[in-house]
């Protein structure tokens, strides 16, 4: 059973992330106060007059089996000696095999390049980093969406 509106791949996390990726792509060419559906509606301008400035639904993914938040690592091309990590991602794309390209989101002012948990990472001004990775969505059991933000206008 799918938990996304448009997709029914049999993988709930993949379906939601596909829907987010589609909505975010549309920006560039709910009863819950905070939820994936609410964040998607805000991104598409269905619930908020400021939605035209929103371009990203930050997500946290939880690993299958451990239900631990997934931390992604990457290298900034301007500083290859210092890897950075994040628990927050922007969905770039999801293919038919449930592989997703995720971009790390970080607050540039966050001094900790390797947070120990999502609560240790500053989320007040999340921005795109240009650091992307490909993940297998079949390895995740849960997705949490944050309210939609403007990650490109910083």
TrEMBL record:
One Pfam family recorded for the sequence: Spore-coat_CotZ
InterPro entries tied to this protein: Spore_coat_protein_Z/Y (IPR019593)
Keywords: Capsid protein, Virion
Entry protein name: CotY/CotZ family spore coat protein
Organism encoding this protein: Aquibacillus salsiterrae
Lineage, uppermost ranks: Bacteria, Bacillati, Bacillota, Bacilli, Bacillales
């Amino acid at each position: 059973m799918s938990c996304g509106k448009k997709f029914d791949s049999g993988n709930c996390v993949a379906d939601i992330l596909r829907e987010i990726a589609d909505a975010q792509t549309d920006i560039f060419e709910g009863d819950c106060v905070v939820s994936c559906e609410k964040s998607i509606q805000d991104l598409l301008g269905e619930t908020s007059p400021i939605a035209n400035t929103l371009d990203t639904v930050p997500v946290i993914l939880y690993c299958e089996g451990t239900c631990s938040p997934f931390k992604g690592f990457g290298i900034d091309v301007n500083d290859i000696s210092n890897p950075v990590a994040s628990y927050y991602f922007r969905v770039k794309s999801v293919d038919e095999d449930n592989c997703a390209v995720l971009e790390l989101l970080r607050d540039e002012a966050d001094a900790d390049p390797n947070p120990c948990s999502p609560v240790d990472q500053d989320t007040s001004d999340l921005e795109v980093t240009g650091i992307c990775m490909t993940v297998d969505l079949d390895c995740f059991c849960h997705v949490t969406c944050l309210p939609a933000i403007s990650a490109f206008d910083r």
